[in-house]
């Protein structure tokens, strides 16, 4: 079992910044990647950013240049620095830990943290 807990969400004005944190604990080994997703009610969850165990990062086009994903493998943490926030960034943000298993990969999800961008 892997436990995943997000923190750092909140209310911020347009143009502002927030930093989300995600802590993984438990049987945290053989991690392929740690990812940030977001979801608006009634819409599909979308991938925001991903970082592999080797440190390679990728971003959704909508956040490229504004968001930065980073990780601390020793602490099993992943962060999402969000700058120049826009109202359309408002969503529930979820951390996902993708783990290698003997039969493929398994995803472990956190409960989410709400980000609201509004004046």
Please explain how this structure is put together.
This protein is mainly beta and 119 residues long. Helix content is 0%, strand content 60%. Strands 2, 4, 5, 6, 9, 10 and 11 form a seven-stranded mixed β-sheet that branches. The chain has a four-stranded antiparallel β-sheet with strand order 1-3-8-7, with no helix packed on it. Strand 7 and strand 8 (77-82) form a beta hairpin. The relative contact order is 0.32.
Q: Kindly state the number of beta strands.
A: 11
Biggest sheet features: 7 strands, mixed
Would you identify the regions where 5 or more consecutive residues have pLDDT less than 50?
Answer: none
Q: Count of helical segments? A: 0
Which structural category do the helix and sheet elements fall into? mainly beta
Mean pLDDT: 96
Which radius of gyration do the C-alpha atoms yield? 14 Å
Secondary structure layout plus pairing:
Elements (H helix, E strand, L loop, with lengths): L1 E6 L2 E3 L5 E9 L4 E9 L6 E7 L4 E3 L7 E6 L4 E6 L8 E11 L2 E6 L3 E5 L2
Parallel strand pairs: 2-11
Antiparallel strand pairs: 1-3, 3-8, 4-5, 4-9, 5-6, 7-8, 9-10, 9-11
């Amino acid at each position: 079992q892997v436990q995943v807990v997000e923190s750092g969400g909140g209310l911020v004005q347009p143009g502002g910044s927030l930093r989300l944190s995600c802590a993984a604990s438990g049987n945290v080994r053989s991690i392929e990647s740690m990812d940030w997703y977001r979801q608006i009610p009634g819409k599909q969850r979308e991938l925001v950013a991903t970082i592999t165990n080797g440190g390679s990062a990728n971003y959704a086009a909508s956040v490229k240049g504004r968001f930065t994903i980073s990780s601390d493998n020793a602490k099993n943490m992943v962060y999402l620095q969000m700058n120049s926030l826009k109202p359309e960034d408002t969503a529930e943000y979820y951390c996902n830990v993708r783990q290698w298993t003997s039969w493929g990969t398994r995803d472990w999800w956190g409960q989410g943290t709400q980000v609201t961008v509004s004046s």
